[in-house]
Amino acid sequence: MTNIAFIGAGNMASAIIGGLIQTRDPQSIWACDPSQEKLNDLHETFGIQTTTNNLDAIPNVDVIILAVKPQVMEQVLAPLQSALQQKQPLIISVAAGINLNSLATWCGGDLPIVRCMPNTPALVGQGASGLYANKQTTDQQKEISETILNAVGMSVWVKNEDELNAVTAVSGSGPAYYFLFMEAMIAAGEKLGLSKETATSLTLKTALGAATMASNSDIDPAQLRKNVTSPNGTTEQAINTFMENDFEAMVEKALTAASDRSVSLSEELGIK
């Protein structure tokens, strides 16, 4: 069984650990974090091994998942270079904006590295992740990476590293777009006379139902929309209003802005 260490024990690490623990020995998982309180919670919840010293875990594992904030990645990796080069583990980074070149350099060079862009629904086992590996990563290590991320949802491989910026825009930031739309629907429902409780319940269940239908259907979302849009009906009036206000152009502009920001973050946080 592959032994795994998480460097950083925040929400995303906790979510992935929660998924992995369903099918593996807790003792095969390490969590490393400066916060003893976080580590105590993880140990009590999952029975995994914990340490405040990253160097204690590295010799004992085959996979290291970097789950620290992008802004501190370089300083976290600097004292680990020698241990990483000696162990030669698979590195999986879930930190946004840190490119493979920066990660490889900060790890001391020439290690198998997979960049992953997950999203917050991983916290409830419904994550969507984009993956990209460097040339040092073997097919077996790619399979391991995929298995780890699939423990909290689904994952897809992209053709080149730049596509992770698009993944960030679509799925990485995507949950917030749906939350914003839910907010707007709830507010509109209240203005139409519903109580906040009723508007919220109807909105959330409708969002869940629509996502479930789309996920379980062979019909694409565009056709599903057409199927519930009767000519001259109520739905058509709403859809026409969206379109008259350039809804599709607004979505494209928003996702482009998110992708552009992903690019600039990589430039700001990585090696110049």
Folded structure, characterized:
- With 272 residues, the protein is of the alpha/beta class.
- The chain has two domains: 161 residues, 3-Layer(aba) Sandwich (Rossmann fold), CATH 3.40.50.720; 92 residues, Orthogonal Bundle (ProC C-terminal domain-like fold).
- The protein is built from 13 helices and eight strands.
- Strands 3-2-1-4-5-6-7-8 form an eight-stranded mixed beta sheet, sandwiched between helices.
- α8 packs across α13.
- The mean pLDDT is 96.
Query: What distance lies between the first and last C-alpha atoms, to the nearest angstrom?
Result: 38 Å
Structural class: alpha/beta
**CATH hierarchy: architecture of the largest domain:** 3-Layer(aba) Sandwich
Q: Please give the number of β-strands.
A: 8
Task: Return residue spans where pLDDT drops below 50 for at least 5 consecutive residues.
Answer: none
- Report the radius of gyration as a whole number of Å: 21 Å
User: How would you write the strand order of the largest sheet?
Assistant: 3-2-1-4-5-6-7-8
Average pLDDT, rounded to a whole number, is 96
Give the CATH level 1 class of the largest domain: Alpha Beta
**Biggest beta sheet attributes:** 8 strands, mixed
> Structurally, how many domains make up the residues?
2
* Overall morphology: elongated
Number of continuous helical runs: 13
Order of helices and strands: EHEHEHEHHEHEEHEHHHHHH
Helix content: 40-55%
Q: What name is given to the CATH topology of the largest domain?
A: Rossmann fold
Please state the oligomeric state of the protein chains shown.
Answer: single chain
Binned strand content: 5-15%
